[in-house]
Amino acid sequence: MKKVLIILGVLVLIGALALGGGYLYYRAEVDGSGATGQSQQFAVEQGESPNAIAERLKEEGIIGSSLCFKLYLRQTGAGPSLQYGNFTLAPGMSYDAIIAELQTPAEREDIVTLTFPEGTPALGIAQIIEDAGLCSAEEFLACANGEEYTETDGSVQTADFSQHSFWVDVPQDTPRFMRCEGYLFPETYQFFENDTIYNYVDTFYEEFEKRVDQTLRDELSAAGMTLDDAVILASFVQEEAGNAEDANVAEVFLNRLAEGSPYPRLESNASSYVQNPEDNNYLYNWVAPYYGGWENIPADLYAAYNTYECEGLPAGPISNPGIDAIRAVAEPNTELVSENGNSPCYFFVTDLTGKYYYGATAEEHQANVNQAWKVNASL
Description:
The protein is mainly alpha-helical. The chain has 14 helices and 8 strands.
């Protein structure tokens, strides 16, 4: 009997400690940390339920527990009074401060919906933003690259996106064209007019962090690739395919990058010496106009992006790839064989019908090129 009482006493003590610990956590959540983090915009859609708001507050890192917030809304009866619109919140705020902000009728700003196609370079994305009247392309890019820029309120700032894990890993000691290239995730977004430039940029970066999740990053790491290398390669897959051939094209490029490869250069016309506006060449179509002409491209930058000269990957991405192209780099078609059944493949060429021809040797590739020309001539 004594042992039973002891056991019961222990269980009661454990329960009390658990309840006490749970209450302390709840109070810590409710009271906030007192030291708020980076302010961010939080948009509440008209008709969005208090429970849905609580879930998104947790997802966006403003609170630590959606359950605690739901309980507090029920305890205070504040749920029905939450407004819709665009609000400024920050991690570390108390629940009372968050609720007070969400109860304040927000200025009903117009929403601008913009679609950014997969493979759009940073300059193209910035131009779409400018054409929509949100901010200038120049200030958008300066902010996105972590440089000094002028905010919509006229203040001069330097953007810090170090809350995103990829940001600090982008190399800064190479002749990279733009730090933001590759990470402005292409998608359809809704922006508030008169929002900050920082929030416009961060919308893209938040989506990148969400879509290129830890599972995918672990796959890339297991394949021996850094995230930045994977994004660079995915940008070439996007430009050379961007379709059902993604995994095949990724395999060809990875074969070229493999140790001991007889063809250690990408040799992709998506970034090379080509000077033809119809070829969608990164150097010709985007970099050259930025510098005011082909002859004005800095020599080190030209060399770093000319895939017929530099071995391995170029200094940076040549576009902002979609999730399928990034996944193709993590999961290439390792069973790819040439038109004659040989492997590994180091070449590919397409004809005007969209058919891809793969070759394991230079001789096979030339035969494929000849075949593609025949098909094109017959069209």
